[in-house]
Amino acid sequence: MRITCPICGERDRREFYYVGDAVLLERPDPEAGEAAWDDYLHNRDNPAGDTRDLWSHEGGCGAWVVVTRNTVTHEVLATELASDVAADLREARP
Amino acid sequence: MRVTGKGLIDRSTPVSFTFDGRRYDGFAGDSVASALLANDVRLMARSFKYHRPRGVMGAGSEEANALITVGRGSEQDPNVRATVQEVFQELEVFSQNRFPSLEWDLLALNDLAAPFLGAGFYYKTFMWPKSFWERVYEPVIRRAAGLGALSGQGNTDRYEKAFAFCDLLVIGAGPAGLSAARAAARAGADVILADEDSLMGGRLNSETHEIDGMPGAEWAAQAVAELAQMDNVHLMPRTTVTGAYDQGTFGALERVAHHRPRGQAPRECFWRIVAQRSVLATGAIERPVAFRNNDRPGIMTAGAVRSYLNRYGVAPGRATTIFANNDDAHRTARDLVEAGMHVAAVIDSRLEAPDGQGYPVIKGAQVCDTAGRKGLESVTYRATSGEEKIKTDCLAMSGGWNPSVHLSCHMNGRPVWDEAVQAFLPAPGAVPGMRMAGACNGVFSTHGAFVQGAEAAVAALSDLGITTEVGETPEAEDAPYRLQPLWAVPGKGRAWLDFQNDVTVKDVTLAATENFRSVEHMKRYTTQGMAPDQGRNSNVAALAVLADATGRGIAETGTTTFRPPFSPVPVAAMGAGAQGRGFAPERFTTSHKASVERGAPMIEAGLWYRPSYFPAPGETSWRQSCDREVNMVRSAVGVCDVSTLGKIDIQGEDAPAFLDLVYTNMFSTLKVGRTRYGLMLREDGHVMDDGTTARLGQTHYVMTTTTAAAGPVMRHLEYVHQCLRSEWDVRLASVTEQWAQFAVAGPKSRELLNSILDETIDGERWPFMACGAVRVQGVEGRLFRISFSGEHAYEVAVPARYGDSLFRLLLARAGALGGGPYGMEALNVLRIEKGFITHSEIHGRVTADDIGMGRMVSAKKDCIGKTMSERPGLSGPEREQLVGLKPVGTVRQLTAGAHLFNAGDPAERAYGQGYVTSVGFSPTLESYLALAFLKNGRARHGEEIRMVDQLRGITARCEVCHPVFHDPEGEKTRG
Lengths: 94, 975
Fold this sequence. Notes:
The complex is a heterodimer.
Chain A: E1 2-5, E2 9-12, E3 17-21, H1 34-41, E4 50-56, E5 64-70, E6 76-81, H2 82-92
Antiparallel strand pairs in A: 1-2, 3-4, 4-5, 5-6
Chain B: E1 10-19, E2 22-28, H1 32-38, E3 45-46, E4 53-54, E5 67-70, E6 77-81, E7 92-94, H2 109-112, H3 121-125, H4 132-144, E8 160-171, H5 175-186, E9 191-194, E10 210-211, E11 214-215, H6 216-228, E12 233-236, E13 239-245, E14 249-255, E15 268-280, E16 284-286, E17 299-301, H7 302-311, E18 319-324, H8 330-338, E19 342-348, E20 361-363, E21 366-371, E22 378-383, E23 386-391, E24 394-398, E25 401-403, E26 416-418, E27 423-425, E28 434-436, H9 446-463, E29 496-498, E30 503-504, H10 505-513, H11 519-526, H12 539-549, H13 554-557, H14 571-574, E31 587-588, H15 592-597, E32 602-605, E33 608-611, H16 622-635, E34 638-641, E35 646-651, H17 655-662, E36 674-681, E37 687-697, E38 700-705, H18 710-724, E39 731-734, E40 739-745, H19 749-754, E41 771-776, E42 779-784, E43 793-799, H20 803-816, E44 820-821, H21 824-833, H22 866-869, E45 880-887, E46 899-901, E47 914-922, E48 927-935, E49 944-949, E50 954-961, H23 971-974
Parallel strand pairs in B: 1-7, 8-9, 8-15, 9-12, 15-28, 17-24, 18-19, 18-24, 19-20, 31-33, 34-44
Antiparallel strand pairs in B: 1-2, 3-4, 5-6, 5-7, 10-11, 13-14, 14-15, 16-25, 21-22, 22-23, 26-27, 29-30, 32-33, 34-40, 35-38, 35-39, 36-37, 37-38, 40-43, 41-42, 42-43, 45-48, 45-50, 46-47, 46-49, 47-48, 49-50
């Protein structure tokens, strides 16, 4: 499997460390309540299709990357720097 | 028998080799199979289950019968296909799965028991009585069936792995592959051409077709020569592409040194090839026809007979009969006749078969039986006029060709049934970036292969932005592919489908009768397709029989799943280099050499190696050394390398806020020049790691982590920064390897340090938890007054290049003070005496409250894990809490991993009260001490509890106490 790091370019997936769903970028407010925290930490979709997850380019530049990929075809559809995605999320926040 | 004037072998280079200890002669370019046939050896193997005599069936890597063992002892390599093994001088090969010899195999009795050994035999037999499972069934019955054996000795051979990248990977160097590689190479693309054969050219080396007016083999040699001298082409002969993986990654096995005597070269190399685009040109495998006794030595595929004749100059028989359902197989007769060999007859199942050219053709007839125990003697065929017998010693059969679609299916693609060619073809687009060309795509003429190969390459290059043209197609035969399906000849007796696993037509129909009608069920019930050839020779015919038996079409019946690898890959090649010291990287501290010089046994701590203890003269056990080292630290001074702890440099305006977020306690309030112990949680509220963090400047901290968690903590901090607080000005760098850091602990630690520091220190300017820059013998270093031993202690750090000399200097000066080095054993005892935790305690399932640090989770701020740590059930008396244990009964020994029970309760899981995490013998308190987790432990100090170690058979009465055994007020640390 090959993943394109937004900084380093296309690399073997063994340079990356897989973490989990990109929902990890959306840490709830401490007061958001049990349901929000439960969702953030535990509840995950298991889609047959497109999914967004977080990978760390640990064997490369150290960047955290949001990878959009398809669990059925294994296509890697897009990669973005997690810090950019986080910045967009901040701006979208009311 | 050798045929004069034929073949591509090098007749000027004779070689001799042995088979089962007998010497045979061959030529360079021969395979073991061709050389044995040249010596009129037809019996080469015994079959898997029935121990039937078998000869060679094919001429390539798909060979199902002639499996041999190469070499002996630790060099023994079983289940090698005789058709693939090239001969060389002094090669030793052996037949396998026979006793006592290939000629006289006692287990051939199985053949007589055949009626009882049909499909599902194991499932039906290995049922009862239970006492037979291990005593009879396993050893006796299972041993009777089998393949070659390993020697049982360690493999001393060297293997290699390698990586390659290209624009276009061409898999297979037959006419389609050569055409594709040539077109792409001429356009300037980086091309890898891989072929499993030693000689590139595919069927061109086995046929008599002319290409551009020259023999096909000669044309292929010229094409290969052209490619060989191009810088942008990498030719990989003897390389099987074994798997197609995501994003253009392919696995490939190169047989580097199997064709020559052992030398320096590795035996095999496992390649990972990353290709922008690929062309599948893997050709096709000729399929046998199922008829009674179709497995005798001397019966092979029609294409194999042509390979032996045209490529190896060998006639497998003196009177050959051909049995086919297609035009293609008639070439075998023509080639034999042209070479002056005798063709007994061509038996064609079609009434419309072409006429013979110097040989008789029997049309509309089928071979229905054969005779000859250890070699074919005659065949019987059935025509409309009745049954006739022909004397013949070689039967060349052909039921058509199966395209080698396997690699196209490795990413979940399913091949598609094509009525016109009566075969499964690869589904277009099944592997992204892969195009198919030639016979593997159902195009069986040489002309068609040339055209498709070039077209596939041009299209692939166009994807990559390289424009090129197909160019002129070499002149070649363009015969139509004409056949009439014929899978199995009806009749009594056993007709083999899967030769390698001894699966017959009867087995498949029995499976259908017993309702194993799905192709996947049939496969598992009969074991069809589960041998080393993975059904390459038999799958299609077996499912055609199944389709017939279940009244369905072949397309509807479907195929089983083709998974990597295409052909067997030794684990030794895939994991090349990862044996012994190659298994994992080794990390050494700067004091490693000096520690080893002092005789310290080094133990693994993750990837690091750390000294266990430093034996002094006269000491005979680790305990003696450990006790002395503990006493030395408590009474004088000890030195220990602590460089393996993770060190993370944290800088930036927002560094204070960042640390407040990742630690449970406050770091923004920490004064510059001070150090603080910090506790880190996971977001789920459990303890992740602990350590001290020093504030070296207003916006500059250096964090220490435990040795084990250095990597995960670094990753976690980067996550918190990049994913949660990317707007913050903070930068992180791991500096673990940049600094050599030594603990200097004991009442004389300050005295020792003052003997090496450029400026002396005192208690006023350097109180407990102070930190800052110092000069050590002129070198800029750092000093931290922190303690993991409970003693007055420091950690001194210098750039790693000075580590070795500082360690030696510290030891020399310590020696004069009655001190010296201490290892991991003493370090562990010292921290247990003080109740300090390690990852034995914070093992991932404990909370801050469990370890008595609940109040370290600051109420004034948010931190990672805080919200979830407040969940009910994560704190309180129902949880197991950290306690100390001291033995009070007659048994004084405590053991880590033991469980705790109330006195009087049975030592069973349901009564568990907790467990022991760390144990050490304290020379200070002259007792074993333990740290443990005990239900509601903090409220139970003073109670007695029973420790039970079921594994070691130790039971001890213990007193529950506070986890800090030594100097509970910390006077020594602060003093």
